[in-house]
Amino acid sequence: MNPGIQPYLELEFGDYQTRVLKYALHYATKEWPVVPLHTITPRTNACSCYKQDDCTSPAKHPIPVNGVHAATTKEAVIHEWWRRNPMANIGIATGQGLLVIDIDPRHGGSLDALVTRFGLGETAMVRTGGGGWHLYYAYMGLLKNSTGKLGEGIDVRCANGYVVAPPSLHASGNYYAWANQLDPAPLPANMLAALLALEPKRPALPHIPALDLLPPRKAASPLTPTTATDATQLLAAAKMPPATGQPPKNERTNIPEGQRNGALVGFAGALRGRGATGETIEAALRAINALQCFPPLPDTEVHQIARSASTWERGQYSVEPLLIPQMYPLNVLLETDLPEPQWAIPHFLPAGVTLLAGKPKMGKSWFALALALAIAEGRLAFGKLSVTQGDVLYLGLEDSARRMSDRATKLLQGRPAPANFTWVGQWNLLSAGGLADLEEWLDTHPNTRLVVIDTLAKVRPVSSNNGNGYSDDYSIMTPLKRIAEQYNVAILVIHHLRKSGAPDVMDTISGTTGLTGATDCNMVLDRERGKDEAILHITGRDIEEQELTLYFNSETAQWMLHENKRGTHMSKERRELLTVLERADGPMSPTAISNKLGITSVATRKLLSSMMKDNQIGQAERGLYMLLTDEEEGEN
Ligand SMILES: [Zn+2]
Separation of 88 CA from ligand 1 center, angstroms? Predict the structure, then answer.
């Protein structure tokens, strides 16, 4: 039977939501970390991610930016995730506890063939939405995921992998469902052997065989070590050679110097995670140390590892429930593609929170709109600055749809309007759902580069009037900053200045430093009324302090950047490089420059080539760089 998309309409929405959340929480109680996945939206009958019909993995990919690494067993986080994404599918993280065999008949996979080959007994099984099967097995190790390697149409999900779990909705319109109520059986030995044969051959890694014999965390099992005697039995069960003080013959079980500490700490953690006491841990570590470490660690070190492990508590590292914990084992972290620190506009608008302040009617909205359009379109901003193209969310809360339409039409000068630019006319106060809405938008629009909030006053809670302006300001900027960091996005907040004339222009931003103190970058647009020229003051954490001159062309409503000859619009590195060239006796080679600057030669060559492109330096002959002469300077 193919229920199609119908069940969404038949079920009360509340029913399905309650069911999904209930399942997610249930998996967490089994110590299976879960992560929300995109689903099929009944309205479009496509993936709920921004790619919709173009999504290559509809209803199967994680919503959090760090993907399956965000998976958790924390109830509060799970509640919050499904509160924000009530219809989200459920992913269960595999590896270190679960290994799932995925049989896909559409790629030639067959349950019968697998059963015949391995003589499989019963285990927890899911009927997938695609008409295949998921076989769940208990396995504590980390094997590589594979596709079609164990057999045609048979995939393996283990280290850093995940599977779509019941009652998730498949793109076909079918739901995933449990085929039985069994717990995962231990991974059959013949299947483990077949899987190990698929593992890439690596140089001998320190491996503690006893680790594979530990029962799953929290599961009741006679092997759960609670006493020193049990630990000894555990080791006996691992069929370890007796402690002779000789290095083990098997390379794979030999833990060399430099890896002994890590291996023992990992093993201690695994024991502690299963409730072992300090005494048991120490006994087990001593045995492993004697059997596998060559040469063995001093007893005092083993004792220290055991003592420290015995104090570890489950949940000890918990964070505020509303934050999605981003915890990575270091080995996973180093293998993860992490987002580069991003600039919406290099050396001008960083990812993070930027406050753009100015007196009313200065042209701040024109400025922000032009900048936002440049990013959406991937065009030069203000006629000069190259941008990183991406999606834009523009909260134009002071303007009507009509005014926005007129302004955008004028700025686009006949170019088609970019579809990745979303205008919003109304938004909740940040404290009353606005922040959660923003996160939800960012969850579903991972290509977002810029969010403009025009203006701060429209989303800021009414002042608490307790005279603590600083903490009010700070408390509104801090969550924005967290979101900007988490999603690696630039948030440009527009703020009207009421007063002027303070000696430090940044002091004009607010009566308190609560606003500017919490931001990554601050800009003040300073323009005398009626004049076309304005000064943009910029200060920030990772950005060079700058004063840029901008001209407003009232015909086209465009702000244009005036680049000074060798002036202020230049990064610190560029100015330092110029100083080096100035002080040199003659033209310099990149190597000599890199030595003087104390930066790598790669970075130096990059800097040189971009400065050549910007006509800021010249070449004497191939490979030698020098300052421009006065005649050349400024030509462009
Ligand atoms: Zn998708």
Answer: 12
**pTM of the predicted model as reported, rounded to 2 decimal places:** 0.42
Q: Rounded to 5 degrees, what angle do the CA atoms 46, 50, 53 make?
A: 30
Pairing of strands 490-496, 352-358: parallel
Q: Could you report the per-residue pLDDT of 368-399, keeping only the tens digit for each?
A: 999 999 999 988 888 888 888 889 999 999 88
- Quote the CA–CA distance of 196 and 317 in Å, as a whole number: 33
Question: Could you tell me the distance, in angstroms and rounded to a whole number, from the CA of residue 525 to the centre of ligand 1?
Answer: 40
Helix or strand (DSSP H, E) at 576: helix 572-583
DSSP string across 459-514:
TSPPP--SS-HHHHHHHHHHHHHHHHHHHT-EEEEEEE------SSGGGGS-SSSH
Model pLDDT for residues 464-502, shown as the tens digit of each residue? 444 445 555 666 777 788 788 878 899 999 988 765 555
CA 547 to chain centre: 33
Using the mean position of ligand 1's atoms as its centre, give its distance from the Cα of residue 528 in Å. 49
- Each domain of the chain, given as residue ranges in start order, spans 9-198, 209-309, 343-561, 572-635
Give the residues across from 537 on adjacent strands. Answer: 524, 547
90 CA → ligand 1 middle, Å: 14
**Rounded average pLDDT over 297-311:** 80
Q: How far is the CA of 8 from the centre of ligand 1 (A)?
A: 19
In the numeric block, the tokens 């307790």 are attached to: 466
Q: Which fold has domain 343-561?
A: Rossmann fold (3.40.50)
Q: What distance in Å separates the CA atoms of residue 217 and residue 272, rounded to the nearest whole number?
A: 9
> Cβ distance 478 to 322 under 8 Å?
no
CA of 42 to the centre of ligand 1 (A): 14
Ligand 1 midpoint to CA 36 (Å) = 12
| CATH architecture for the domain at 572-635 | Orthogonal Bundle (1.10)
Model pLDDT, residue 457: 84
